[in-house]
Design a protein that fits this description.
The protein is an alpha/beta fold and 177 residues long. The protein has a domain of 123 residues: Rossmann fold. A six-stranded mixed sheet has the order 5-4-3-6-7-8, sandwiched between helices. Helix 3 crosses helix 4. The radius of gyration is 16 Å and the shape is globular.
């Protein structure tokens, strides 16, 4: 799917909202990209999975819990690649794993994420994977808000790739006055 078609689709399902919003890192914004809309809409999910699948090659996928899990599962089905789920912290019951799914020491994994603002949740996921012996040098997101994530990830030798940037998504958008 081309960039403009994805932009049109996200706007069509009202995944781009305008107003005053608090972001997960504590800052505020006059727009919000609602990942729960595009994660739960079958057309959006399929389009994003197709676009991600075109970019991941045959690499194992790593989904950041919770937001990227639907995207990662759909991309796994689309690409045929296995995936793992990376929790924010190890669970305190059952197996006690922070990383769910199968992977091997030295295996290459590309981390999938929904939105990148500062990139901290992606950095945390990459560090957990690296600590487990996995090679990660790339994070692929749906939307890069262009607020420092690429630079922060680069400090950890991680390349940020995005399907869309905020600039692309917001260009010519009908903003309320």
């Amino acid at each position: 799917m081309d960039t403009q078609s994805l932009i049109d689709l996200l706007r069509e399902v009202d995944a781009v909202k305008f107003g005053e919003f608090e972001l997960s890192h504590g800052g505020t914004s006059d727009y919000y990209v609602d990942k729960y809309i595009f994660n739960t809409d079958p057309d959006c999910l399929a389009a994003i999975a197709e676009a991600f699948a075109e970019r991941v090659g045959d690499t194992t996928l790593g989904g950041v819990a919770l937001g990227a899990v639907p995207l990662t599962a759909a991309t796994s089905v689309e690409s045929g690649n296995p995936y793992v789920i990376v929790r924010k912290k190890a669970k305190e019951y059952g197996t006690g794993n922070q990383i769910e799914g199968r992977f091997e020491d030295g295996e290459e994994i590309v981390v999938l994420e929904d939105i990148a603002t500062t990139g901290q949740s992606a950095i945390d996921a990459v560090e957990a994977l690296r600590d487990a012996g996995v090679v990660v040098d790339r994070v692929l997101v749906v939307v890069d808000r262009e607020e420092g994530a690429a630079e922060n990830l680069a400090k950890h030798d991680i390349e940020l790739q995005s399907l869309l940037t905020a600039s692309q998504l917001l260009a010519d958008a009908d903003r309320p006055e």
